[in-house]
Amino acid sequence: MFDLEIYEIVNILGLFIGIAFGVIAQKNQFCFSGSIKDYILTKSTKRGASVIMAMIIAIISTTLMASYFQIDLTQSSYFKSNINYLAVIAGGLLFGMGMMIADGCSSRSLVKYAQGDSNALITLIFIAIFAYATTKGLLFGILNPFINNPFLIEISSKIENFQMNIFIVLAILVTILLYLIKRIKRVFSLLDGILVGLLVSISWFVTGYIGQDSMEREIALAGISFVYPSAKTLELFTYYEVNELSFGVSMVCGVLAGTFIMSYFNKKYSFGCTSAQNINKVKYNMIGGALMGTGGILAIGCTVGQGLTGLSTLAFSSALAIISIFISAVITGKILNKYNKLPMCFIFEWEDEKKNKPIDFQI
């Protein structure tokens, strides 16, 4: 009845992966930047533990899946030739700064917008515009000499962009997880991290196994990422060229749909948040979005694109990117908090530590 081409099947599956991601992220407000903000403001480690769990599951499931279906992850963009580590680090620093200023990374902005925070749309638009400008527009001409600088590339080549040892990486992540959860039984409350991690490996399977049989259109080996796909989504809706519909664009649309649907069932997060602090949200969203759009392209991904998808390939460059994002985000978050510019909308605590205390926030 439905005679679909392979690339159409891939796009449909991308839509469903996005819907699943949106549902999961909205349910427990899964967020890398939010986990940093939680710790700075309330010392809460709940969302941070979910992020680390997602990394662990993404690495394990992706490694098993790639081995079984013989998918060569080194053919992905995370192992591109002539990589410039300085550009990756600089991009990570810009992205980390931007996501704290805008109060959410690219994936978080998709979720916030779809669940009712209209300010997040400004962030998304600026992420898309600046990502596109860095890839093909005005900023490309300015930044390309830096990104493809022969001297910097030669220096970077001294350390090959290798696949890190999975056991060492997992040992580090498990140690961090144990530090964050404090009690082993809390692992069972990290279902959102487990599911997000599995979605990463599923996305690799869709593009790396199903997609490679496509004869009509070449499908790039890709996972879950939101910076460049946001730019391509804006391009699609601006020029309306159906041929531009891709796995990444379908996933972005799916996240919006999944979050919107879930917000009707999980109403405690289904509205915008205006914190009590005197913050110019529009200005912060614009600046943060611009930094993330540019930084995400330089770093070859965002917190999800590098922190989960890239790290699942065990690429050395992905580790550099997510460490740079984390360091920049922590420093920026502490500076914003010092000047009372770090908004707190919801409190996330472990179930066994919740206290009956009023929350004085202006919503």
Q: How are helices and strands ordered from N to C?
A: HHHHHHHHHHHHHHH
Largest sheet: none
What's the number of extended β-strand segments?
0
Structural class: mainly alpha
Contiguous uncertain segments of 5+ residues: 358-363
Q: How much helicity do the residues have? A: 55-70%
CA distance, first residue to last residue: 49 Å
Count up the helices: 15
From the spread of the alpha carbons, the general shape counts as: globular
Strand % is under 5%
Q: Average the pLDDT over all residues and give the rounded result.
A: 90
- Tell me the radius of gyration: 19 Å
Characterize the structure shown.
The protein is mainly α. The chain contains 15 helices and no strands. The protein has helices at residues 6-28, 32-42, 46-68, 85-101, 106-114, 119-135, 138-147, 150-156, 166-181, 191-210, 227-239, 247-265, 281-298, 305-312, 316-338. α6 (119-135) packs parallel to α13. The protein is globular, with a radius of gyration of 19 Å. Mean pLDDT is 90; it is low at 358-363.
